[in-house]
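Appendix B. Chain record.
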Amino acid sequence: MNKKILASVIFALGILPFVSGCSQVKQELGIGRNSPDEFAVVKRAPLSLPPEYNLLPPDPNKPHTEVISDRRPEQAAEAVFGLESTKESLPPETALLEKAGAYYANPEIRSVLDREAGYIVFYNEEKNLTERILFWKKDKEEPVLVDAKAEAERLKKNQEEGLPPHEGEVPTIHKKNGLF
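Structure tokens predicted for this chain:
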């Protein structure tokens, strides 16, 4: 009896992925996607006109009652960027900031803390992050290739003249830059 229950549970779990592909099963289990019904629109009350129809158009000969300020650009800048504090700090406040060392703060404190915490620091002034990702290989010098035939001739010539082997310039092969 116990084996039959175990076999039926294993069978049910095994067939579940195949059955979940059916659309009705997906909807019943809440897995399927439900798109919104564009025809199920809630009706709203129609737009209405204001109750006072006797509003007169403005008279061009009357002076404007609205005060137009000459400082509108400055006011807009203050609203967006905040007020600039032009007030002088009080002597006790200055003394407190002086004792706290606020005027001598390290501008590189973020990179110092990151290095102390062991984080990888991506602050590099000569290369930005994109350049470091694209050009991650270090600029290495090309390996020097010695021209074996010319080197053998040079060593033979040094031996004939009685010079030590390290005398003279070692002939090298220079790699050509370009496609061919």
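Further analysis of this model is presented in Appendix C.
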